[in-house]
Amino acid sequence: MIKIITIFSLAILLISCENSKNKSQPKKREISGSSEQKTPTVNSNSTKGDISSEYLGAYPKKDSISYSLGVNQAEMMLNKSNLDTRDFDQKELIKGFKENLYTSPILDSICKLNMELFLGENGQSLNSDFAASGSYCIGKLYAHNFLTIWSKSEGINRLNLKMVVHGFEDIIKKNIIAITSERRKDLIKVFYENLVNDVSKVMIDALNERSNVEEIIVEDRKNGIIDSAIIYIESIKKGTGPFPTDSSNVSIDYILTSPFMDTLENTYKSYSNQKPPFVNIKSFYPGMRIAIPKMQKNGIYQVFLPFEMVEDERLPFPYICFYIELLDFKETSTND
Known about the structure:
- The protein is α+β, with helices and mostly antiparallel strands.
- It has two domains: about 55-200, no CATH class; about 210-330, Chitinase A, domain 3.
- The chain contains nine helices and seven strands; from the N terminus they run αααααααββββαβαββ.
- Strands 1, 2, 3, 4, 5, 6 and 7 form a seven-stranded antiparallel beta sheet that branches.
- A hairpin with a 2-residue loop joins strand 1 and strand 2 (about 225-235).
- The longest helix is centred in the middle third of the chain and has 28 residues, at about 180-210.
- It is elongated, with a radius of gyration of 24 Å.
- The chain starts with about 50 loop residues before the first helix and ends in a 6-residue tail after the last strand.
- The model is unreliable at about 1-55 (pLDDT under 50).
């Protein structure tokens, strides 16, 4: 069985495989984008947590999502550090986060040293002499992490960064949080799902424009209703010779990625000094059992599998992408 590495939590995600022109999907499966909703002007300069719960709870408003993500980032920082907000220089911590959220901050060696001097070797031996500089750099670090996560998928363009700062600040200053924990989870969940769907749609639209892509429509009839899913196979390098069967043992190298091009598994690294073992096709995902017999030895392909052809809750995406090199195959009754 293909081993999948752990995917980061729902609040973390994300680069679109590529850009393409808009092209509608005629098939039953829908990967639809979300429309941007207009939001009223809100005074987000306050530091007293006085943005109304009624407004911020107006799901799924852009400012509500941004605020929730800011709260989430601050909570994640506190949970990871095992520290209380009173342990930091709050003003400098917020300043470090705010000032660097609008840039592409680089954590230089001076900043790393300041954090070490402030936190100590075990992260708990705090040195108040370095509280200001250390807190600023920790804020900078979490701004860097936030941008790394959301800029990669262009999700940052859907956020109001002032509201992200506001959420972060409310946690650090222990202000009243304007949105309940459950509501924040819902907001982030929907934001993430919409982002994944939009990125997947761009990817599939691009595939529909290419001449070296084969579509395989898989139909499933249940209770008189025909449901369909589409597997896309892009030929990167043609192989030679015969094709494997649906019961062959195959040796493949592959890179599994999400729609955001995050590498989830890479056999080129795990088997860097040896040939991958032979594995029977029947042990792969249902979609792979269909796709691999379409490949030739020494060929290189990209296979895009819909969730229906994967059905793995660890891969909660409309489509996943396999970059596959079919190294060898053989017809035997047992796995090698």
